[in-house]
Amino acid sequence: MTDTALIADLGATPGARARREHAGSRAVTTAHGLLFAAAIVVSVLTAHTDNWQLADLLILIALAVTSEFTATLLPSGATRISGSFLGIIIASVVLGRAEGAIVGVLAIGLSWFRWREKPHVLRNNLVTFAWFPLLSGLMFYVIAHGSGLMYHAVDHSHGHKYTHLVIKTDASYYLLVFGTFMVALTLNFAMVAGYECLVKNLSIRAKAAELKPIITAELFSAVLTLVGVYLAIHLKVAGLAMFALVLLVFQRLVGELLLSQRRGEELRVLATTDELTGLANRKEFSDRLDAEIEICKQAGTTFGVLLLDLDHFKDINDTLGHQFGDDLLTDLGPRLAARVGERGLVARFGGDEFAILPARRSDDVIALGQIVDEVLRCVREPVLVREITLEVDGSIGVSRYPENGADAQTLLRRADIAMYAAKGHGDSFRIFSADQDNHSPSRLSMVSDFRRALERENEIIVHYHPIVDLSTRTVHGAEALVRWQHPTLGLLQPGAFIEVVEQTGLMGPLTTTVLTNAIIKCAAWHAEGRELTVSVNLSVRNLHDPLLPSQVDQLLARHGLPPRFLKLEITESMIMSDPERALATVRELSELGVRLAVDDFGTGHSSLANLRMLPVHELKIDRSFVTPMLSDESDMVIVRSTIDLGHALGLRVIAEGVEDRETLERLAGLGCDRAQGHYFSMPVAAEEFIGWIPGFERPALSAA
């Protein structure tokens, strides 16, 4: 009950496009035209020998056309479940070659309105479905007449001479019908597959392999053809009409069954496959990992599990859009799977996180290191997306069976811990060790909660801490300070989560969130006529990110904020962790026109030489020196010296931790430029900060 027709598009690669142009060339079009014309000529020349029965012909045309319109396409894309082939063979055998060709051409021609094949494909199918009925019917006619199974007898009854066809319907006749069916099937496949192989440059052997799953169905179709021929000969029109009706109902039932099976397979694939990359999903990977554990438990063997998280992936989404990120993942997933090999398994757990079961089963540290290097080389390969070259890196955590866990959940959890340890230390990978697992359940819970918080709008919030100009006693700007409005724990201060976030790949997304909020608010203040500055703290991971300057530049341009009103605060220890990379990022930021401040000055380990190299504009004296300065002479000396040093270097100096008026006045007397502290205000929401300013500045200006 199947027929073969070339109906799929021919691909989109450059080679395929060239072959598609070849398929539509004038030579091929001419060849198709000549072959079709030859089929018409042969049909006309042999029509006088056929058994023309109009009613039978109309029934078979209706059967073939209806079957094509209601056919069910198989997953291969080139074969469909249809009764048209049976109708064509019955027409060729019972009526004649020309009738078979007519049924075939009409079925293909009219079914174009359903399948909409490409023009060159339609031409080839028309030629195929004209010629295989002619050739197989000619073979049947020659053998049947030569063996005496069919002959034309002369009847002289009633004074007239009549010629009628006599058919000997014995076993030999039906064996010949079966053979004709198989020849027609072979011709059909050869003409369709041959053309497809020519166009797509495929192997005919590879195409022949597609027949294996449907051989049983074809043999069943041959049996149905024998039944149809029997009914057409012995029951005439009524038998043929009954056969056509039953066949169409049967085709419908088979189509529904196949459709149900296909949907079931699709649901199974959806349940075990990542839709974007086509890789296994978390459930499929966990199930496979459990199965691998059972095998290794019996055999006494070992293996490693890798958990990969991409670096800078969120920056690509935020800067270029999620479609670029999706295209990158779509490219990377199959490459990773190919690099790992068929005996291994790669799964996407969501976002930019992948799990890998290497093809090489080993818990040897050197072997695992080699596997990790191979995976990272694959990750680091540049990807061209819409004429933009994207590059990402990755951090990998490794756990080993059975040393690090005896079940899938434990192995994955510890690979996750090792991966975040690698991120926290700036390494490309880490193998799990017990010292990484400090309070891991609560830590993992916090990381998971924080990851979700970044995706929501109302959990990560920003408060603003005023910075006051001591010479005018007016508000100069504010420092943006992050808070986490946890759904169950309430408002959390940075000390409750920043350390954990610093050790994960979430510091970049957090900084992006705070930067975006701060720039939007500051631009809004400017629109209201208040030229305030806003300060944002950076982390060491931010300074090691080469994409940070372009990200800041785009945010400023998008929201229309002049760069000089954004201040980015860094610490001495950040610079010293990797001076070369950090200085490169700081210099790029300075070239944008962004103001830079050294935060917590005096608590780090930098030298004056390092300070002179930095393109900074401000020093912020740490609160640990400012708050006790009135009661501790050594702190007073440090504050005074820092103010003098800053001015000598041409920098503005800001004192943090001002808690009372006495400290404020003393700082003003020492020549400090600006101050920040709870004496002015606690960190508050943006709206509250703006509302606070008039009430603060009026008394200050009156006193001045």
- The main sheet orders its strands as 13-14-16-17-18-19-20-21
Give average pLDDT, whole number. Answer: 84
Summarize the main sheet: 8 strands, mixed, barrel
User: In the residues, how many domains can be counted?
Assistant: 3
Strand content: 15-25%
* End-to-end C-alpha gap: 98 Å
Given the structure, what is the number of helices? 27
What's the topology here?
Elements: E1 2-4, H1 14-23, H2 26-46, H3 54-69, E2 72-73, E3 79-81, H4 84-95, H5 97-115, H6 119-146, E4 150-155, E5 162-167, H7 171-200, H8 204-209, H9 215-234, H10 236-272, H11 282-299, E6 303-311, H12 313-320, H13 322-340, E7 345-350, E8 353-357, H14 365-379, E9 383-385, E10 388-390, E11 393-401, H15 408-424, E12 429-431, H16 440-455, E13 460-469, E14 474-486, E15 490-492, H17 498-502, H18 507-527, E16 533-537, H19 540-543, H20 548-559, E17 566-571, H21 572-577, H22 579-591, E18 595-601, H23 608-613, E19 618-621, H24 623-626, H25 633-648, E20 652-655, H26 661-669, E21 674-675, H27 686-703
Parallel strand pairs: 11-12, 14-16, 16-17, 17-18, 18-19, 19-20, 20-21
Antiparallel strand pairs: 1-3, 2-3, 4-5, 6-8, 6-11, 7-8, 9-10, 13-14, 13-21, 14-15
Helix pairs in contact: 2-5, 2-6, 3-4, 3-5, 3-10, 4-5, 4-6, 4-9, 5-6, 6-7, 7-9, 9-10, 12-13, 13-14, 18-20, 20-22
In brief:
The chain has 704 residues and is of the alpha/beta class. It contains 27 helices and 21 strands. Helix 13 crosses helix 14.
